[in-house]
Structure formats: C-alpha cells, structure tokens
Amino acid sequence: MADIINLLPDNIANQIAAGEVIQRPASAVKELLENAVDAGATEIQLIIRDAGKELVQVIDNGSGMSDTDARMCFERHATSKIKSIDDLFQIRTMGFRGEALASIAAVSQVELKSRRTSDELGTFIEIDNSLIRRQEPCQAPVGTSIAMKNLFFNVPARRNFLKSNAAEMRHIVDEFIRVALAFPHLQFSLNSNGQQMFHFEKGSLKQRIVSILGQHYNSKLVTVKESTDYMNIHGFVGKPETAKKTRGDQFFFVNNRFIKSSYLNHAVMNAFAETIPPDSFPLYVLFIDLDPAHVDINVHPTKQEIKFDDERILYAFVQSAIKHALAQFSVTPALDFDLDPGIQQLDALTQPFTEEKKAQSAGTSIYKTFTSANQAHIIDKSNNSNLQHWKELYGPPPARENDFPLPPPPSHSDFPPVSTASVIDERWQEAAHDQKGPVQVHQQYILSQIKSGFILVDQRSAHERILYERYLRALAEKPIATQQSLFPQTLELLPADAIIVHEMLPDLQALGYDLEPFGQHTFVVRGTPADIQTGNEQASIEGLLEQFKHFSHELKHNRRERLVRSMARNNAIPSGKPLSTREMQNIIDELFACSMPNVSPGGRGTFISFKLNDLEKMFDRGF
Ligand code: ADP
Ligand code: MG
C-alpha cells in the first residue's frame, strides 16, 4: 500500500495557522498597531475601508525595515523580538511570536512600503496568498506602511463568517481604543471610508482617557498609584457616581498589554462594593506592571489571556490599591478589609517586612517582596468620619410608592383577541374579575385569589412578558408614544456603543425613544417611552445597551428581537419593588391579556397556580 502522509504546502499551512491569529479585520488592526508601537513609532495612522473587509492599513513613522527584513517579516516564525526561549520571559514588546504578518499574508493581499532613516530609498512589496508578487525600490517616508486588502479573498468560507459592517467596525474601534489607551504618549488617528473618526494628540493618560471616554470624566477620575518591589499599579478609576449600567469602560493592561480578566475585574468590583448600586460598573483604566518573568503571555495566540505566577496576590494588590485610592480621595471611608481570609493570612500581608526577612526571601517567594513602606493594604482607619454620609449618598434611595407608574389597563381595541388555544384557561380570565385585592409577598410576588384557588405571580417575569408583547406590537403596528423630556440630556457613549445605537435608531424611535445624533458618539435624548420615569433616561438607555450586548451571543434571535427582549428585561419592574394594589391589579390584568401569559420572553415561569382541590389534598396528607 502507498504511504498516505504528505507535508502541507506553505500557503495552506499558513492559512490554517492564520485562523488562530486573524479571525476578523479587527485582529489585523491589533497586530499592525502593535507592530508600529514595537517599531518605536510616535505617530500611527489607521485607515479602514468597508469595515476592514476591503482595507486595513497602518502607517507609522517607526524604525522601518531593510529590503531583506521586509521580505523576511512575512515568513512564519520570523521575528526580530526574541532569539531564544529565555527571551520569552523578559518580553517588553507587544509581539514576539512572529506569526502576525505571515498570517495576514496568507489570507489577504498585502502591500508594504518601508524605509529606514539610514536608507535613501525604501522598499515596496506586494504579496498575496503568501507569495511575493513584486518587490522593488521606491520613494517612501521613514517608517512603514502595511496595507491588508480583501481579507479572506482566498478563503471564501471565512469571508462569509464576517459580520455586518457595523459589527466588524465595532471590533475595530475596540482594538484601536485599547492600543490608544495603552500608549497615550503616541499620536493615533483612525480614518474610516475617508472620514476621520478619531485623532488623539500625544498627552497624559488622563487626557487620553477623557478624549476617548468623554469630557464628563474630566473631574471624575481618581488616581490609583501603588508601588511595591513586586509590582506597580497606576491608572484611574471613575468616582462611584459615574458608574454606569452598561459595561465597556473597564480596561486592564498588564505590562501595557490589554487583557481580559474576570478575576481582576472582580477585585475592582469588590473594592467598589457598597459605593455603587448593584449591577453597575465603574470606569477603570489600570496598568499593572510587573517583572515579565512572573507572567506568561504565551498562553493564547492573541495574547488577551495571560497567566500569573500567583493570582491571589495580584487580586489582593489590585483590590487594596483601589480601596486605598478611593479612601484617599474621601470617596469612601477607609473600609475594613474583607479580603478572602486565605489571602489575609499570607505573611506578606500581615507581617512587617524587615530587612532580615527581605534578605532571607530575596528572589524566592513573590509574596515576600512587598515592601512595607508602600503596602497598599494598610489603610489608615482614622479617616472613618464620613461613613454615614457616604451611605446616604450612594445607598439605594428610599422606596416610594408609585415609582414605576404603570400605564392604565389595556382597552379592548388596543389588543388582539386573547388566544383560547393557549394555556390560559378560563380561570385566569376570571382572575381579573374576582377582585379580592391582590397582596404583595416579599416585594417580589403578587398573590391573587381566584375562584378556584389562588395564583402567585412573579412580578418581574410577568412585567417582562407584558412589556415584551407591548414592544413587539409597537414595532409591528403602532409606535409607542414618546414622552418629551423637559430638559434634553446628552448621552455620551463609548464609540462601540454609539455604533450599536446608530444601527438601532429607527427601532428605538418606534419604541418611544427620541434620540438625535449629536457629534460622533453623543446623542441628545429628547424623549423616552411614556412609561419610563423621567430623570432616568440615561440609565434606561445604558441598561438597554448592556442587555443588548448580553443578548448578542444569542444568534438565534435577530437584532429586533434582541432589542425588544433587552428593552423588556431592562424596563421590567424589578423584584424588591413595592407595588400599590392598583399596580398589582394592572399587572395581573395585562398579563392575562397577553398571548402567552405563562412564561417570560426568556422562558421563566410568570405565575404558579394553587387550586383549592390540591390544597385540600395537601392538608389531608398532613402538610
Ligand atoms: P512579531 O511582532 O511577533 O515579531 P510579526 O509577524 O508581527 O511578528 O512581525 C514580524 C517582524 O517584522 C517583527 O519582529 C519586526 O521585526 C518586523 N516588523 C513588523 N511590522 C513592522 C513595522 N511596522 N515597522 C518595523 N518593523 C516591523
Ligand atoms: Mg507583531
């Protein structure tokens, strides 16, 4: 029998490997920007056409490349950044795997122009499908320009997987902003389809944050800065009052590399606990610097996930640093620490760090390298005076009745006929008429007597169902009335969120939101659906966005469906909300006028019925 194993040709091997590094235009954006930073550029331009599907180009004024390097850089495992495996543990550059350009060249058509200061002429290269088509000398400014064209032109299956332009653009903007935040001393610009979307001048981190995330943060940032022998942290957190209902303003950088870490995020959230309402997210832009030997960045091809020597120490450090910062700025009182006891008992956190110990442990255990002078976890507790005041400021407001005015019960003409084939049996319709005022139980359930027994309605799920059907009708037939705001508010959004809102404007209009674009990432909120409390416009839209993003993983739903579900979930009366008798009655009436009253849009039950017969039997059985 013949042998059956063959070696894959280079271009196919590269295409396969590229799958890990280049998933979408935004992946190329990240790699090309990082290369420009690594090349020592001070001015970096990103040019996009057709959400990166047609063109992603990065122009930098960095070191440039020689003729040979310009050819070499597209080879797999070609890198100038490491030479041996030991170098891996001292990485200070963003790249090191030598895969990015090889991957890009395998799945697109690339044009490179580059010149070093020492060379009179630059070099021009054209590549597609991993093959060099042309190389020749050319005039060029110092630095490098790499253009990636027609991504996945040779892998149609993957091209088909790309999302809408708005979605791909959102990813691009996210990557661009992460790099721009990490290097505020460099100038960045982003041009999309011929229009300048961003231009950031060189400046301080604070200036960069404010120019990206919004002017309103200018006086709302608290400095975080702690140094120890083991690691440093610096950056900013937003004051608690700036916490939003929507995620997106949270950034962690480890040795200047943006990372996603729910663990470290938790540490920050913990430090903020009680200063912000539940389900809201404070801004943070935090840079942790530590010896690269303690971090493994090579666990993931895109390097967004990394591994630390000891995560617990990092957690304690981050949490302490934030608490310290908040306390110093009198944003919160110095709080008693409620660190995980396991962490609290670590020697590094409890015992003074003497010279003797330092000598003993030098270079061994990382815990012990905390210096005592700068221990972030030791906070002066004398500063406790504003405890009461602070609780009042940020605690939940005292509940009032009728905070959530419900619209009047539906008149018959507004509603399609109730489906009789569904689970609704007549008893539920009786419920509306057999009025023995409903009772609220634990501010969460509504107990209502009906002829054959009683029902227990989950107020939140029920209201979600009601709103869901109301919003669907609004989109299909009759738009919801808008309640004009007396004082239109401006809503400054993250660029990526602004794209979502732009996309949804017509639907939002039908659902009662009157929003008007005002500059690139800003909208003026002129009105909200009539049943949203005034004063809550901003929170309502932010909450909506957060829900929408949450649902964006559920591919089975289209965008409208997701919007309607998000709005219903976001605007539903929460558990824990006291309700008046009239409000409860309205909920019951409207629930049973729904076409599917028994479940919430997400599939949760909305009520349970208890029948007299069954109750009888339960008592007979002795319980
Ligand atoms: P890595 O960044 O991991 O080394 P890449 O494939 O991204 O791998 O790049 C390969 C090499 O090409 C880099 O190590 C660098 O020497 C060179 N290079 C890439 N982009 C640039 C640029 N913009 N300016 C100068 N040199 C570059
Ligand atoms: Mg690189």
Walk me through what this model shows:
By secondary structure, the chain is an alpha+beta fold. It folds into three domains: 191 residues, Heat Shock Protein 90; 124 residues, Ribosomal Protein S5, domain 2 (2-Layer Sandwich); 155 residues, Ribosomal Protein S8, Chain: A, domain 1. Helix content is 35%, strand content 21%. The chain has 20 helices and 22 strands. Strands 5-4-3-6-2-1-7-8 form an eight-stranded mixed β-sheet. The radius of gyration is 29 Å and the shape is elongated. The termini are far apart. About 17% of the residues have low confidence.
**What is the topology, as strand order, of the major beta sheet?**
5-4-3-6-2-1-7-8
The DSSP helix count reads 20
The CATH class assignment of the largest domain is Alpha Beta
Structural class designation: alpha+beta
The percent range for helix content is 25-40%
The percent range for strand residues is: 15-25%
CATH superfamily of the largest domain: Histidine kinase-like ATPase, C-terminal domain
Low-confidence segments, ≥5 residues, pLDDT <50?
331-435
Q: Give me the Rg, rounded.
A: 29 Å
> How many separate domains make up the residues?
3
CATH topology of the largest domain: Heat Shock Protein 90
Say how many strands there are.
Answer: 22
Q: What is the architecture of the largest domain at the second tier of CATH?
A: 2-Layer Sandwich
Outline:
elongated
Query: How is the main sheet built?
Result: 8 strands, mixed
How confident overall, as mean pLDDT? 79
Query: Span between N and C termini?
Result: 76 Å
Q: What molecules are bound to this protein?
A: adenosine-5'-diphosphate, magnesium ion
